[in-house]
Amino acid sequence: QLLPHFKEVDGVMWPVREIPLLSLERVLDAEVTSHGKEVIQRKIQRLLKKRDYLDSFVKELVDGLVPNRVIRERILSDHPDLLTQPLCFDTVVKMFSRVCFDFIRNPYALKFSYVLANLCEELINTTLIVNRMVDICEEVEITGVH
C-alpha cells in the first residue's frame, strides 16, 4: 500500500505535489531539439519561480503574525500530529483558498496547510490570521502554482 501523498514512479516514491515537475523533467529528457529543450526549461523555471513565490508568501504571512523567531521557525517546519483547533483551521484554510491561493488552481499551496494548522495551534486569534491574509492577499496575482 502506497502512502496517500506519495506516488511510485520507476520504483521511487515521490510526493504527489512533485509529479508536475517530474513530468516536465521527463519530457525535457526525451526532447531532442534544442528549441524544444529551451521551451521545457522555461516551463520548469516558471513552475519553480511560482513555487518560490508561494514559499516566500507563506513565510511573510507567518512573519507578520508571530514576532518570536523560534516559534516562527517551528510553525514553518513542524507538522502537527494532532489538530486541537479545528474551527480555527477550517476558517483559516477556507479563507486562504478563497482570498490567497485557490487550492484547485494552485495545488502546490496545499503543501502549506500544516502551517495554517500550526498558526491555529499557537492559539493565534482566528480573526488576526484572517485579517493578515486579507491584507497581504490583495497583492497576489499569481495562479497555477503546481
Number of strands: 2
CATH architecture: Orthogonal Bundle
Secondary-structure element series? EEHHHHHH
**Number of helical runs?**
6
The dominant shape is elongated
Widest sheet: strand ordering: 1-2
Q: In the residues, how many domains can be counted?
A: 1
Overall average pLDDT: 86
Report the sheet with the most strands, covering strand number, pairing sense and barrel closure. 2 strands, antiparallel
**Helix coverage percent:** 55-70%
CATH class: Mainly Alpha
Roughly how many Å is the radius of gyration? 17 Å
How is this structure best described in words?
The protein has 146 residues and is mostly helical. It has a single domain (6-137), classed as Topoisomerase I, Chain A, domain 4 (Orthogonal Bundle). The protein is 61% helix and 5% strand. It has helices at residues 19-30, 34-65, 69-77, 86-100, 113-121, 126-137, and strands at 6-9, 12-15. Strands 1-2 form a two-stranded antiparallel ribbon. A hairpin with a 2-residue loop joins β1 (6-9) and β2 (12-15). α1 runs antiparallel to α2 (34-65), α3 crosses α5 (113-121) and α4 packs parallel to α6. The two termini are 25 Å apart. The mean pLDDT is 86. It comes from Parascaris univalens. InterPro entries: Legum_prodom (IPR048501), Legumain_prodom_sf (IPR046427).
